[in-house]
N-acetyl-gamma-glutamyl-phosphate reductase
Amino acid sequence: MLNTSIIGASGYTGAELAAMVHKHPHLQLAGLYVSENSLDANKAISELHGQLRGQIDLPLQPLTDVAAVAQASDIVLLATAHEVSHDLAPVFLAAGCQVFDLSGAFRVKGDEFYTQYYGFAHQHANWLDAAVYGLAEWNAESIATAQLVAVPGCYPTASQLALKPLLAAGLLDTQQWPVINAVSGVSGAGRKASMTNSFCEVSLMAYGVFTHRHQPEIAAHLGTDVIFTPHLGNFKRGILATITAKLAPGVTPEAVTEAMEAAYNQPGNQAVRLLGNNAARLQDVVNTCFCDIGWKVQGQHVILTSAIDNLLKGASSQAMQCINIRNGFAPLTALAG
Ligand SMILES: NC(=O)C1=CN([C@@H]2O[C@H](COP(=O)(O)OP(=O)(O)OC[C@H]3O[C@@H](n4cnc5c(N)ncnc54)[C@H](OP(=O)(O)O)[C@@H]3O)[C@@H](O)[C@H]2O)C=CC1
Ligand SMILES: CC(=O)N[C@@H](CCC(=O)OP(=O)(O)O)C(=O)O
């Protein structure tokens, strides 16, 4: 059994991770942690997340001695804000732990990226360089030997899983940037109260227009520029991305289907479900580890729809897929099947 600690366990993604680790036949929950001065310190996790009652009643411990937690852990899951992960990951890594970071702190290489999009200067160039981007269906080979996995953002997961097969097969005319419009449920903003996620303030709207940090994350890992516009929806969970792209001259609908099937009808890639000409729907993926992708071609354009649960395939279940790949377990262990 691998001792697994979750930092940020009281949050939305942290609680999902706790449930998965509890279910996993080869992982053992070593500890659940919150910040040193957290208002939730020493409460049972099930007091905050009632669905865990009777299953996981462990306390949320204040993270006071990072070195001691590292010593007691084989695997550390960081379900913490970017700056917190940035500071904590190197400590766990130096102690030899496998680290799976759900934040954006190690996702994109490049000197100016963190100052421009995250508001802090990155201090750990060596770990940023060593980090493997945890898009499970596309980076399995590198994930299998990584010590630090940077789990992709929620919008980047939905967007890239739809576009990558077409780019890999050379089917897109990238002179016209793919246009991604995506709507997320409010849990994407985390559990902490704020005016923007307050019930009476949430309304379907675009935000971060031309400035959202996921645009450069998507572009960097796709290797092509995109227009990306996120939207906040008045529902709890799920992301639906609707993506319009231009096909290269002569590309047929059959070629698009073949590219999607070649990418995902493969052993190990069962977390992506292909819908052909049907459109993806949130209700089919919420509370699951799946990404559903549909597409339709007309003339020289393709419209793709991609749906995930932002807290699962967009964060926690993708982290668990990466743990499974890294440690030689079946890819969807503790997730499905
Ligand atoms: N929500 C989503 O859909 C997605 C989130 N992510 C990323 O995953 C990470 C977690 O997100 P989410 O679960 O939504 O966030 P939440 O705000 O719901 O939870 C954050 C957790 O971190 C804890 N925390 C805060 N500061 C520290 C600290 N210094 N040391 C230890 N624990 C700390 C909080 O508890 P307390 O403050 O009480 O200490 C809480 O448990 C973020 O980086 C987010 O960007 C990625 C993809 C999707
Ligand atoms: C609805 C909402 O607010 N969503 C979040 C994205 C959450 C996510 O993917 O997290 P990372 O910050 O780890 O990239 C946002 O737009 O900031």
DSSP finds twelve helices and 14 strands in the chain. The domain at 2-130 is CATH 3.40.50.720 (Rossmann fold). Residues 154-168 form the longest helix (15 residues).
